[in-house]
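Work package 3, deliverable 3.1, input record:
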Amino acid sequence: MAQLVYSNKINKIRTFALSLIFVGIGVMYIGLLAKKIPWLMFTLFILGVIFVLLSTVVYFWIGLLSTRAVPIVCPNCEKPTKMLGRVDACMHCDQPLTMDKDLEGKPFDEKYNTKKYKKEEQTQK
Ligand SMILES: [Zn+2]
């Protein structure tokens, strides 16, 4: 079975925000090419602006998340990193990390962050 590679959540969201900016610029560029059709150019420009605005919102959201993230030093590469939730991966080496002693040594799984899993765990106790 292929091992899934997990990456840091903050990094993931940041990549998403960056790609939104590129999509926005791309859409506006297509709009520029379509300048012979004014309504199309106008629509594409508005769409592009919406994408760029969305990415600003996502960047703002990262800022909020970062304040809630726990700064730690990665035991694998010894660089400072931030983690979100009960399990996350190192920003630099993708080493799976956990804040929860109960989960130490268990195979890394993103399900540990879901509400459903927490509920299941509580009913087992
Ligand atoms: Zn690391």
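The radius of gyration is 20 Å.
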